[in-house]
Amino acid sequence: MIVSFVRSECYHNLAIQTQMVLKLFLSKRPIFLHPHCVSSSCRNLDTTTRLSRRIATMSENKSPLLERARNIVPHLETHRHKGQAGRIGIVGGSLEYTGAPYFAAISALKVGADLVHVFCPQAAAQVIKSYSPELIVHPLLDSNDATMQIEPWLERLHVLVIGPGLGRDRLILQTVSELIKICRQLQKPLVIDADGLFLITHDISLVKDYYGVILTPNAIEFCRLFGNDRDRIMQTLEKLGRGVTVIEKGLNDRIYDSLTLEKYECPQGGSGRRCGGQGDLLAGALATFYFWALECKQEISPAVVACFAASYLTKNCNTYAFKAKGRSMTCTDMIEQIHNVFDDIFEHKKE
């Protein structure tokens, strides 16, 4: 399939390159192809870059979890209507942090959700609206009756992401605590990230025994929640109650399932470039994948599969963007790669 659109004079060189790349990749060693390995006629087609990317994808794509992640992706069918692919809510943003809720929201949209609502303070609303006309922005989070105004919207949403750019204003955190309690009553699936995790660290009862919550801590946030003794992680996870899933972000993202008390290692990926916003991209993508997984009747572990899918997508967005931009890569560059990564890895292909 890959070679079918390459000129005939490239076939021999491509076969050699394929063997080289596969051998190097399967041995888990870095792949370096010398420019002289590629003939001038092939180099014009940028075949080596595309080939190495696809071979890497094929080699890594043998994971059972990845196959299950592909299965939850809904087919693009003409009889579906707006909203069926996901209505996602983002609770976050502050005067200082307007990029984080935007990154999470636009990532949820670009992965495939139909509608995304952002609930933020008044000071952040106009800025977030200026970033994209695609988002529905509600400047309600710091209003006097914020809970009363936001609650009617919650029933319409499939998954809520709490935390990107939220900040640590005491009154706003109190409002968010009330929203989490309402979401528990509604049995609303939640993804809690960033300053949402700061809130949870100070009041773990908010998520204890909350079936359907996913926590997305980075290394520092993970230590705050679980301590430094990695041998006691599962014991601490049990204290959160059954139904809480945790994805620990790092070189290898790790998924902890409180239902089965199992740990899953996600593949390594990405680059040495650690620009801000990658966790927001993951949180937004996770919300969309999570809704799809919950809708898939064949999937028995929707939270675990959604975490794997979001991790794998984010790592590959980093890889693709770094290949194009190198050290100057930003989260915006990664978001621009969501389509390419999704198309290469998750999209249903016509036979």
TrEMBL record:
Residue numbers binding ATP: 249-253, 270-279
Function: Catalyzes the dehydration of the S-form of NAD(P)HX at the expense of ATP, which is converted to ADP. Together with NAD(P)HX epimerase, which catalyzes the epimerization of the S- and R-forms, the enzyme allows the repair of both epimers of NAD(P)HX, a damaged form of NAD(P)H that is a result of enzymatic or heat-dependent hydration.
PROSITE patterns, per database record: YJEF_C_3
Catalytic activity: (6S)-NADPHX + ATP = ADP + phosphate + NADPH + H(+); (6S)-NADHX + ATP = ADP + phosphate + NADH + H(+)
Gene assigned in the entry: 5565418
Keywords assigned: ATP-binding, Lyase, NAD, NADP, Nucleotide-binding, Phosphoprotein
Cofactor section: Mg(2+)
Pfam families xref list: Carb_kinase
Domain YjeF C-terminal: 65-345
CDD domains: YXKO-related (cd01171)
Membership in a protein family: Belongs to the NnrD/CARKD family.
EC number(s) stated in the UniProt entry for this protein: 4.2.1.93
InterPro entries: CARKD (IPR000631), Ribokinase-like (IPR029056)
Enzyme class: lyase
Gene Ontology molecular functions: ATP binding; ATP-dependent NAD(P)H-hydrate dehydratase activity
This protein's record includes keyword Lyase: yes
Protein name: ATP-dependent (S)-NAD(P)H-hydrate dehydratase
Binding site for (6S)-NADPHX: G165, N218, A219, I220, E221, F222, C223, R224, D280
BP term (GO), one: metabolite repair
Organism: Aedes aegypti
Domain of life from the UniProt record: Eukaryota
